[in-house]
Amino acid sequence: MTKIDTEMHPKIAEVARQLLPLTENPPARPTKADRDKLMSLRYRIRDLAEEEPWTVAEETDRQYLYVVATKEANRQEEFWEGNGEKWADQ
Q1: DSSP state, 52?
Q2: What gap in Å lies between CA 54 and CA 48, rounded to an integer?
Q3: Strand, helix or coil at 86?
Q4: Cβ neighbours of residue 50 under 8 Å, at least 6 residues apart?
Q5: Whole-angstrom Cα distance, residue 52 to residue 27?
Q6: pLDDT by residue (tens digit) across 35-82?
Q7: Which is higher by pLDDT, 28 or 70?
Q8: How many angstroms separate the Cα of 24 from the Cα of each of 17, 48, 49, 89?
Q9: 2-11, 18-27, 28-37, 55-64: which range is least confident on average?
Q10: Rounded to whole angstroms, how far apart are CA atoms 62 and 76?
């Protein structure tokens, strides 16, 4: 069992399970689909703040995931800009 399974709120854990594979082993040449999936998860993490009152620990987990998603989004954005603003072919 991991921290995701035992300590996180179920809604936050669900998003974490989807996000962590994208950030632990990111594609070297992200595609538009990779970018769209990441941004969708990032917005979902952001919107979790509105869904219910979180404990301090749950809010910390949510904010951490948002930061992780943002860092990967920025890395992909740098790749995009470095390639003449062209995403890798699908």
Answers
A1: S
A2: 9
A3: coil
A4: none
A5: 33
A6: 899 999 999 999 998 988 999 999 999 999 999 999 998 888 888 877
A7: 70
A8: 11, 22, 24, 22
A9: 2-11
A10: 21
pTM of the complete model? 0.81
Taking a C-beta distance cutoff of 8 angstroms, is the pair 35, 76 a contact?
A: yes
| Sign, CA torsion 77/82/83/88 | negative
Asked if 15 contacts 48 with a C-beta cutoff of 8 angstroms, the reply is: yes
Q: 């992909």: which residue's tokens?
A: 76
End-to-end CA distance of the chain: 35
DSSP class of residue 28 equals S
**Six-digit token string for 9:** 């709120």
Tell me: pLDDT of 89 over 60.
Answer: no
In this prediction, residue 47 carries a pLDDT of 94
Question: Is 76:34 a contact under the CB 8 Å cutoff?
Answer: yes
Residue type for position 63: Q
